[in-house]
Amino acid sequence: MPVLNSALDTASETYQRNREAQLSVLAELEEQLDLVRAGGGERYAERHRHRGRLLVRQRINLLLDRDAPFLELSPLAAWGTEFVVGASIVTGVGVVSGVECVLIAHDPTVRGGAMNPYTLRKTLRALEIARRNRLPVINLVESGGADLPSQSELFVHAGKIFHDLTELSAMGVPTLALVFGNSTAGGAYVPGMCDYAVLVDGQAKVFLGGPPLVKMATGEDADDEELGGADMHSRVSGLSDHFAADEVDCIRIGREIVSQLNWRKLGPGPTMPAEEPLYDADELLGIASADFRVPFDPREVLARVVDGSRFGEYKPYYGTSLVTGWASVHGFPVGVLANARGVLFSEESKKASEFILLANQINTPLIFLQNTTGYMVGKQYEQGGIIKDGSKMINAVTNSTVPHITINIGASFGAGNYGMSGRAYDPRLMFAWANAKLAVMGAQQLAGVLSIVGRQAAEASDREFDIDADEQRRRSIEEQINQESHAFFVTARLYDDGVIDPRDTRTVLGMALSAAHSQTVEGRRGFGVFRM
User: Fold this and answer.
1) Residues 6 or more apart from 326 whose CB is under 8 A from it?
2) Number of Cβ within a 10 Å radius of residue 35
3) CA 64, CA 258: separation in Å to the nearest integer?
4) Which of 19, 219, 362, 467 gets the highest tally of CB atoms within 10 A of its CB?
């Protein structure tokens, strides 16, 4: 397979400007991640430790295999909202006893681990990733239940957690509950619906109604241990499968359970040489343009991500705004679709459709590197069939059954987001570089469109057009769209699975591909009707 030759000039003014912009936003990202890792803050962390409890990330570290990586998901959930960034829960994919698992861990230092609307979204997304990729689920439970002031946004959809846990079990995907503390009301059903439940002595409290509620409802006097303690559930109710002496023992038992699952991946393992790229990953910081409107060559990204910088390009002289071709990442063969000059024309659309069909024919996962302003508009392109050609591409993306992994490395606007396997098209995992933007269109373009519409409306109704008011409205709209298209705003709403440092792209892709190969990797042979 051909090796990519880099033309990147690391001494150029453009490279340095791009690098400075990327480092600036990465510093902001690290600042936010520090807040996430701090949970509810030192005061509540110290109180938790004083009670003899492990912090949530300590539990995760002990559960994971030694030196195993942890692909954290949606760490900035709830950023910019009234809720604590991170949404009082840690989710991710990690290796436990040699098995890749999805971990869902409450952080009790944040409002007792209570679930808010973003906690719910984050939990459901983690369960979806487990289902799509056939990954066992380990719940590290310590939660006071629903955040009651926001119950109207929780109650109806929270039932999906129970639905998904039982669906996973029916699919033969193991689910575990390691209960370290409170698991009350609706939360009591988590250990009840998991295949395996481990409760910690003196800490686990699993009941539908606590002492005050029982007193109110029945007049009965009962304490926490009688209603939901680990000893009672181990000896009397039978809810507990394993009685843990303490938290470390609980984690030991959890690892032992996973080791006995006899778990096997359904997809093939790596089949290609997994040499490191020929070029330094640090150089990725200066490749993405500081101004998203300025295109850059995605081959420079691939040269620092794929194995041995090897890339067999498909149709290199046709539809050149989209780069397509074959490569491997950490030994996993992949097909790549990467935007080169932003706009998707008819040629790019047809090229993408054919390439996706080929990948499905040979059961090869697809990586989408988004940096698109959408499909081309204008009289020439409308008459040339851009709608039906774009529809072919979206049809192919929709009906493709090989794993898709999507990374927004620049911008993702308009229907280009759909054609490049955006969130609505169910990629197995999806991430964004810290510089990325996502919206219907760019802020200036959107504000300009609304200005033109307003001017036309004024002319149609024969009234004077207020230029000053229009300019003020344009500035306001641009500011709004710039805020709403920011990578942190987007990931806070779980429109992707996390914002990543460009230098981690190869590692993230490798972990995502490995997780996806826990499920069958098989392409579709029959597609829907393609408009010719």
Assistant:
1) 1, 311, 312, 314, 333, 334, 335, 336, 364
2) 15
3) 11
4) 19
pLDDT at 241 over 90: yes
C-beta atoms surrounding 129 within 10 Å: 23
Write a three-state SS string for 28-85.
HHHHHHHHHHHCCCHHHHHHHHHCCCCCHHHHHHHHCCCCCCEEEECCCCCCCCCCCC
Handedness of CA 389, 391, 393, 395 (dihedral sign): negative
Distance CA 87, CA 500 (A): 18
DSSP SS3 for 449: helix
Please indicate whether residue 214 or residue 435 has the higher confidence score (pLDDT): 435
Q: Please tell me the predicted confidence (pLDDT) of residue 531.
A: 64
Does the pTM surpass 0.70? The reply is yes
Query: The dihedral of CA 311, 312, 316, 320: what is its sign?
Result: negative
In the chain, how long is the greatest CA-to-CA distance?
Answer: 82
Token look-up 């600042």 returns: 31
Q: What is the DSSP string of 460-487?
A: HTT----HHHHHHHHHHHHHHHHHHTBH
Confidence label for 532 from pLDDT (cuts 50, 70 and 90): low
pLDDT digit string (tens) for 142-160? 998 777 677 888 888 888 9
Distance from C-alpha of 37 to C-alpha of 32, rounded to nearest angstrom: 9
Record the tokens describing residue 421, joined without a space. 């396997």
Tokens in use for 356? 């996706």
Residue where the block lists tokens 């996430």 = 36
Token digits of residue 66? 């030694």
Instruction: Specify the amino acid at residue 160.
Output: K
Residue 202 DSSP symbol: T
Q: Measured between alpha carbons, how far is 225 from 205 in angstroms, rounded to an integer?
A: 7
List the beta strands (DSSP E) in 144-295: 175-184, 196-200, 205-207, 242-244
Q: Are 400 and 362 in contact (CB under 8 A)?
A: no
CA of residue 362 relative to chain centroid, distance: 26
